[in-house]
Specification:
This protein is an all-alpha fold. It has ten helices and no strands. It has helices at about 5-20, 30-35, 40-45, 55-70, 75-95, 95-105, 110-135, 140-165, 170-185, 210-220. The radius of gyration is 21 Å and the shape is elongated. GO terms for molecular function: DNA-binding transcription factor activity; transcription cis-regulatory region binding.
């Protein structure tokens, strides 16, 4: 089997050593040795040992930004919910590392500070996207801030519940449930469009996903060809 990428090996080594020996007791040299690379190689990938605990945030942020850029005003909320699912899947797909990191972050103040800074970057990305979507509408800045904070809070509440439970269940259902609250609260933020005075009333099963709801509403609101 081919070896994992060096960045992944370093991250896994850091998590394991912090867990086994403690954060303060583990050095960069220890992490490099466990990963089978030199100290200089470590610094080609990470600026510090705490950075190795959050190895993929830049890549993940770019994936989220790409998903948001691919949307239009009519699909902005769907893009946001898709982006939140990308973040959650990132943690779930590597559950063992996520769970060990969670235990470490709870114990080490330096890692908690690093995590808070990472969360702020996600929230800023959502805020900027929503702000562009709302344009120069009244209170656009305030509403963008509130929606971004709500989206991040919904994701973090679901993620924390999954981590506290030891990753023993699929959190996608709880995330959909949490996002429905966000969508219901901020649905009115979408740019209003003139539909000739017509009113559309639709009902959906509680099990319907946000994407299904959006697709059905958009289909009914589109003008006939």
């Amino acid at each position: 089997m081919p070896k994992p990428p060096i960045s992944q090996r370093l991250a896994e080594a850091a998590v394991a050593l912090f867990d086994e020996h403690g954060y303060d007791e583990t050095t960069v040299d220890d992490i490099a040795a466990r990963a089978g690379v030199s100290r200089s190689t470590f610094f080609r990938y990470y600026r510090s040992k705490e950075d190795a605990i959050f190895p993929d945030h830049d890549t993940l942020l770019e994936r989220i930004a790409a998903r948001l850029r691919a949307s239009t005003a009519d699909t902005a909320i769907v893009a946001i919910t898709d982006a939140v699912r990308i973040v959650l899947a990132h943690y779930v797909d590597d559950a063992e590392v996520s769970l060990r990191r969670y235990r470490l972050v709870r114990r080490v103040p330096a890692l908690r500070d690093r995590e808070i800074a990472s969360v702020a970057r996600y929230q800023r990305l959502f805020r900027e996207f929503v702000g562009e979507w709302l344009g120069d509408s009244p209170d656009a800045g305030l509403r963008a801030e509130l929606m971004a904070a709500s989206v991040v809070a919904a994701h973090n509440q679901v993620l924390r519940g999954w981590l506290r439970a030891g990753g023993t269940y699929d959190p996608s259902g709880p995330l959909d449930h949490a996002l429905r609250y966000v969508i219901a609260t901020f649905r009115h933020l979408e740019q209003p469009q003139d539909r000739g005075g017509q009113i559309v009333v639709a009902t959906f099963s509680r099990a319907a996903s946000p994407q299904d709801v959006m697709a059905a509403i958009q289909q009914h609101l589109e003008p006939p060809t």
